[in-house]
Specification:
The structure is a single chain. The protein is α/β, with parallel strands linked by helices. It folds into 3 domains: about 1-265, 3-Layer(aba) Sandwich (Rossmann fold); about 280-475, no CATH class; about 515-700, no CATH class. It contains 30 helices and 11 strands. A 7-stranded mixed sheet has the order 2-3-4-1-5-6-8, with helices on both faces. Strands 7-9 form a two-stranded antiparallel ribbon. A hairpin with a 6-residue loop joins β2 and β3 (about 40-50). The longest helix has about 40 residues, at about 280-320. It starts with a strand and ends with a helix. Mean pLDDT is about 80; it is low at about 30-40 and about 210-225.
């Protein structure tokens, strides 16, 4: 049997740690959460040799082992807790060749924990361009470890890195800094009080608010010889430790690293002056968003049409070739249209993730964070709040988790409360289908598609509402706080195609399978409710319709449509829909839309799948979902159901309503109470109803 070891990837943010993880593991990755907390972890099992496997864990980015956020605490807890099943046999510290001095602070701390530690210096392909030379042999001697030059972009150096991991037991465990040099008398007292404990590990436990969850901690009785230090004294010793480490790092790099400044260019500074300019920075950001949404509509049209026609063909094929019965009806009228209502939007969602991934890979998103800090401060948040808000365009759940990086509790709470206003990918199917029905597919000035412009306005509306509600929440919440804003500007770099592809595939797959489970379950329930009725009117629908005076004037096709409509109206779902119709009619909706709205409180993307299922029940016309929705008539007002007034009303309702039970659950977990999720649910949904009502009454 092959032996398996644990390998932890650790590094500062923006060192390319995730790119290294992707290069090592390929598509073997699993994404989940650490037990008991909502911090995401990536892991994979790879084969290093015939007799050795490695369980590789990509830990959250951290600048040092002096944690300031919950994400950073995860790193410390794992490295200090030998009882954890993921406790590493070897740690790979990923650093950036251009920021080696800063990265080595974390490396020296981890090495001093007594763990075999490999230094992987990424972006080696930039060395010649930046005039950097590094004496690897000398650096290995100074650090007493194995050093590997790698390039995630060029995919070089990874065989050597794997060999270093295989030979991890040969790596010296000698520390870079003698802990006693921080404060000789204090550490001698520590050693005397706890002779069996590793001094540096003990020091980290003392200085950090580390939470080991359910791990049984051994209580060591207080020792008379050890006088506890005050918080101010602890901070002073931490600062002294950092100074001593940088003295060691400076001396090491002085002998091993040379940099010819004449070869370094001022490209980054020149671009930064433009991209974070107080005027042009915002103009460029809006222009980029505008182009993204235009491209989403333009490029995705053809694959979407193919998918729509494909699901229509599958539904028709199943209905014609399988024997009549409940199972055939369920598959052809329930499952296939329901799933098709989501799969049709895969091209546009994939393009959205593609553009977001490219912006992150190039280093531009950090500039957006810096740029938006000027605005966010005025609304009770910080520049760091922009990361959750931008992440919210994919999904509110990881966006709420991303708020853990915000040190101030008030700013973090405000950010968590307003994140659901940002337009997530679950809203995208609703937006796309409604926009295509009520906004003309025409161009302004012959260039800009009105539908793409509407989509961008909805994204800006969501972001603007989040910011405005943040201002209101920060005024209403009486919480004292101090706020500091520090953001790192990474170097600009061309996106690594493999990383972008991994992101698009993983995020799109997560959306489809995550939404697919819910949609499949709801589609089956809705089909049953729409295919059966509680009264004789449903059972005798055909007889009732054909015996009416108008039946003789209808063609065979029209008669079948009338029978299907009568059955649907008197089915279980028909009665339920008409019960809530008085509530939704003032918004311009019929009972079918009402049912779709209620079901979408489980997850927004269910809306289209619900309508697809409802419209497919008993309908044998060769029409796509979109054409069936376009042909619907308003039962109260007459005329088309989906008009500009009802369409804009529906778009605004979905822009503001809180329709995601998973997000509410995450907010409950992050805030520790149901108070805030309930405020979100009733506050946002009530606001959405009022806005949609006013909009329809004005436009109608």
């Amino acid at each position: 049997m092959s032996k398996q070891i644990n390998v932890a990837l650790v590094g500062n943010p923006n060192t390319g740690k995730t790119s290294v993880f992707n290069a090592l593991t390929g598509l073997n990755q699993k994404v989940g959460n650490y037990p008991g907390i909502t911090v995401e972890k990536k892991e994979a099992v790879i084969r290093l040799s015939r007799s050795l496997k490695a369980h590789v864990l990509d830990l959250p980015g951290t600048y040092s082992l002096n944690a300031t956020s919950l994400d950073e605490n995860v790193v410390i807890e794992l490295l200090l807790n030998k009882k954890d099943k993921d406790y590493p046999d070897v740690v790979v510290v990923v650093s950036d060749i251009e920021n080696l001095k800063r990265n080595l602070l974390l490396f020296t701390q981890i090495k001093d924990l007594g763990l075999p530690t490999v230094l992987a210096i990424n972006m080696a392909d930039r060395m010649s361009r930046k005039g950097i030379e590094l004496d690897i042999d000398a650096l290995e001697q100074k650090l007493n470890t194995k050093v590997n030059l790698i390039s995630a972009r060029k995919n070089t150096g990874f065989q050597e890195l794997k060999q270093s991991i295989i030979d991890y037991q040969k790596i010296s465990l000698e520390p870079c800094l003698n802990a006693s040099s921080i404060d000789k008398s204090y550490f001698e007292a520590l050693k005397k009080a706890y002779p069996s404990q590793d001094l540096y590990k003990l020091w980290l436990v003392i200085t950090q608010d580390v939470n080991f969850g359910k791990t049984n901690r051994i209580r060591i009785p207080a020792q008379d010889e050890l006088k506890p230090k005050s918080d101010a004294e602890i901070k002073r010793l931490q600062q002294k430790e950092t100074i001593k480490r940088y003295q060691f790092i400076n001396a090491t790099l002085k002998e091993t690293l040379t940099k010819d400044l004449a070869l370094a260019t001022g490209f980054r500074a020149s671009i930064d002056r433009l991209l974070i300019h107080k005027v042009w920075g915002y103009v460029i950001f809006l222009a980029i968003l505008f182009l993204i949404f235009q491209a989403i509509y333009e490029w995705a049209t053809y694959p979407m049409d193919l998918i729509d026609e494909g699901f229509l063909f599958m539904s028709k094929f199943v209905g014609q070739h399988l024997p009549d019965g409940m199972l055939t009806g369920l598959i052809s009228e329930g499952i296939i249209p329901g799933i098709g209502g989501i799969v049709i939007f895969v091209p546009q969602i994939a393009f959205l993730f593609l553009f977001i991934s490219i912006l992150e890979e190039t280093g531009y998103m950090s500039r957006v964070v810096f740029l938006m800090d000027r605005i966010m401060r005025k609304f009770g948040m910080s520049g760091k709040s922009i990361v959750p808000l931008v992440s919210g365009t994919a999904c509110a759940i990881p966006a709420v988790m991303a708020a853990r990086n915000i040190e101030s509790w008030k700013e973090r709470l405000v950010t968590i409360l307003v994140v659901p206003f940002t337009t997530c990918s679950a809203r995208l199917p609703v937006y796309l289908i409604i926009i295509s029905l009520v906004i003309p597919d025409e161009r302004w000035l012959g260039l800009f598609n009105y539908q793409g412009m509407t989509l961008m306005l909805l994204y800006l509306l969501g972001f603007g509402t989040a910011v405005a509600s943040g201002w209101l929440a920060s005024r209403l919440l009486k919480i004292n706080f101090k706020s500091y804003f520090v953001v790192e500007m990474p170097n600009y770099k061309l996106p690594i195609f493999k990383n972008v592809a991994y992101t698009v595939v993983e995020k799109t797959k997560s959306f489809v399978f995550g939404a697919g489970k819910i949609i499949l379950a709801i589609s089956i329930i809705l089909w049953v409710l729409a295919s059966y009725g509680p009264t004789d009117k449903f059972a005798k629908a055909e007889k009732i319709v054909t015996s009416s005076a108008e039946a003789s004037m209808l063609s065979e096709e029209e008669l079948e449509t009338e029978i299907a409509s009568y059955k649907l109206k008197h089915s279980f779902i028909g009665y339920a829909g008409r019960a809530i119709e008085p509530v939704v009619t003032p918004l311009g909706y019929d009972w079918k839309i009402g049912i779709a709205i209620i079901s979408s409180f489980a997850a927004r993307e269910v809306f289209v799948g619900t309508l697809a299922t409802i419209y497919s029940v008993g309908n044998e016309d060769e029409q796509t979902i979109k054409s069936r929705m376009a042909s619907e008539t308003n039962p109260v007002l007459g005329g088309p159901l989906f008009t500009l007034a009802s369409g804009i009303s529906l778009l605004l309702f979905y822009a503001f309503a809180m329709q995601c039970m998973s997000t509410l659950a995450i907010v409950r977990k992050e805030t520790g109470t149901w108070k805030w999720p309930m405020i979100q649910l009733f506050g946002m949904s009530g606001f959405a109803y009022v806005v949609a009502l006013i909009c329809f009454q004005i436009l109608n």
